[in-house]
């Protein structure tokens, strides 16, 4: 069975013995997650912009059609 307390103690011991190496290891482990988060955030922003642009275009077309109908009457 996984002993979390022993694992946590070994991590703290490693961090106390070699703080620079520990921080380097942590940063190397987290960098791919940071990159994935940045890419996904960028994609979400692009999707949101495209959706808003489409909604504005649709609203504009509806207003143009409404104005043409009113002009005919």
TrEMBL record:
Membrane topology label: Single-pass membrane protein
Composition-biased stretches (Basic and acidic residues): 51-65
GO terms under cellular component: membrane
InterPro entries per record: Smim15 (IPR027877)
Superkingdom of the source species: Eukaryota
Ranges that cross the membrane: 26-45
Compartmental location: Membrane
Alphabetized Pfam families for the sequence: UPF0542 (PF15086)
Keyword Chloroplast among UniProt keywords: no
Family (UniProt): Belongs to the SMIM15 family.
PANTHER family named in the record: SMALL INTEGRAL MEMBRANE PROTEIN 15 (PTHR28644:SF1)
Protein name (record): Small integral membrane protein 15
Species per Swiss-Prot/TrEMBL record: Jaculus jaculus
GN (gene name): LOC123462963
